């Protein structure tokens, strides 16, 4: 039994089948797994402050569970800043680093978050808003560095301010009376499974931080971003947080004298909650047409869009390589479908959803255990970038329920 199947079927089968009596489709998020994942991070990265990327899954019970582990908020919108504020977090634990902030975002974020400017123009807009409010705001800059995960040269990006532009602009920015630049942020890639790759990136970030501190005059915080991924299929190896944590500790010790006042943040979304979610759908119909078997599931594209997105991209790209396009497309093996059936019979089927569109496709001509109407099917690793990227309003179909399995075995159904 593979890792995914064992986790989903063995641990959750009874709960899933019980909930399937009430719901044709639903997400089940598990508190025990979230706590296990977050505790692993805290153990392996002592002295680091973790920020939860709320955009990956803002479901209230999930958010509450993660923040209860001492995590802050990596906010991609003013609404996510407000979530952090309502949870009782201070400004230093709500980092607002989204690109393209409006003046309304900036004005609203100043009092409840630490703003991270994503462009040179945004620095000026923050100055304007801070002056209106009669405050001096301590802010960070999101840098587009002169390196990537795998190369010593930078690339054009919608995210961040070019490294050289920061150096060129600091003299004038220091003259702005209502802001102080005290922090640095970079985030270059998600769903990385190689600890060695992230070690190299972290080493570059620490060296860059020393240089930026010299330019800023002080550096109160550095947000290293994240990138830590999760296994989506049997061939994926779990990310080695122990190895990366050890290297992070070594770097913090090595650079302590040069970065004495610096607090280090790491963002996490997928690693914290991705494996804690399972999407569940039921077989609603079967048919044979022109000799081909079809199995129709409830709420796939409009409930759990990942399989349909994989199918669409592969259809348009043919057999050529497709680069990851996070979080919409992680890879061609970024989901598993596991029927919860007790049969040795197998059949070749095309699995689709029940929407009035041919793009609602899960698998084509797949060898699967034989399924019948009413059977339950599960998709593991649906705790992040799943419900939030699925077009649940399409065709006005019923939305999947979102359920939270507490550690004590109770199931919470929060309307969200």
TrEMBL record:
Orn/DAP/Arg decarboxylase 2 N-terminal domain ranges (all copies): 34-273
Cofactors demanded by this protein: pyridoxal 5'-phosphate
Keyword Plastid (UniProt): no
Catalytic residues, chain numbering: 356
Keyword Transferase set for record: no
Keyword entries, A-Z: Pyridoxal phosphate
SUPFAM superfamilies cross-referenced by the UniProt entry: Alanine racemase C-terminal domain-like, PLP-binding barrel
GO molecular function: diaminopimelate decarboxylase activity
Modified residues (N6-(pyridoxal phosphate)lysine): 55
Pfam family, one: Orn_Arg_deC_N
PANTHER family: DIAMINOPIMELATE DECARBOXYLASE, GROUP IV DECARBOXYLASE
Name assigned to this protein: Alanine racemase
Organism annotation: Dysosmobacter segnis
